[in-house]
């Protein structure tokens, strides 16, 4: 079969790229090695984790907060089988949605492992070993990533597990040990802490969510400890983990170099993700991986050194975010069609779906200091928000960083209720190079959480916050 575009991988980057290619009139095929479309995000990542986060949040609120609203319950219980079944149903609905979109846009979905024969030919190897070949003038690598493995800490997928297995536990652990204080570890830790687990987070760095603005990590750690009882062991270097029976023991060196250990029911290894590029046959077309042999090299047009071969998402450099991959998928599709799209990588928001939620876009305060840029800061706490008081979500704040010379907004960092949704306003404003005063002079509905963003912008504009 001859196509205009072949996409290898059907995750957020791959399926979005395919749909946009089809919309632009390009005959498109997608190769997916798993039996379901959607990649990590829909099957074992973003979507199922959010389903469990929502379910656990309902339980936690019912157990801890409903009485304050005059709602009294008794004999409250967790039905893990039903919770997992609901999560699986959510996955099924989203996968079916992609299947519908592929049919609607006349995209061929081909099952098997795709690998390069040459720069225009892809071999598809099916599960039983049967092979077939298809050709195209343009090929997009969108193979995503997998959980990073630690060589000294083998995962048995029973007691020592990754985020994938953590989404299918049928019982609430008494003690859950999480190696890694990043997004994945904190979200999964939140799920089980809400359901009653003792959760211990062991992190090598001095701060959780270390890639985000430092103030966010400090506040999130404080709130998770206060509201969920999560324990944090910062600056600890994990040295190993062993499983015996229904128990797992994790060992580490503390900041003083002393040996410490924890014993729990399960240990989640959540130290990041690694680009999945094995088996692509890149050596057959002369592509050498970069960044310790994991990432596919691309230029500013997301084209590899081989003309007509592109790569997007987790397979290339940059943040491993589903929405980054989606934007790159659209970008490459439109480049192939002869258009001139753009992506501003500084304005791709990052979100942590704990509660309170954490969201960030643009430069962090640490980055501005390192770059020697003059800036001013405005912050507003949710404890001063009427809407937050009404819902009982008063932890957190919004921080606006603006240029000291031009007042242009350089970064927005927030931790609080619905921050994941609120960050979009900041991103739009920054796309249009808004100043802090622009935001301060925009009328925001009252009472809403987004008023905190306006107040933070006011605070950055000659300290003009009204409600603080």
Summarize this structure as a short list of keywords or feature phrases.
FAD/NAD(P)-binding domain; globular; alpha/beta; 13 helices; 468 residues; five-stranded parallel beta sheet
Describe the protein.
The chain has 468 residues and is α/β, with parallel strands linked by helices. The protein has three domains: 215 residues, FAD/NAD(P)-binding domain (3-Layer(bba) Sandwich), CATH 3.50.50.60; 112 residues, FAD/NAD(P)-binding domain; 114 residues, 2-Layer Sandwich (Enolase-like, domain 1), CATH 3.30.390. The protein is built from 13 helices and 22 strands. Strands 1, 2, 3, 4, 5, 6 and 17 form a seven-stranded mixed sheet that branches. Strands 8-15-9-10-11 form a five-stranded parallel sheet. It has a five-stranded antiparallel sheet with strand order 18-19-22-21-20, with helices on both faces. β1, α1 and β2 form a beta-alpha-beta unit. α1 runs parallel beside α8, α3 packs antiparallel against α4 and α3 packs parallel to α6. It starts with a strand and ends in an 8-residue tail after the last helix. The model has no long low-confidence stretch (mean pLDDT 97).
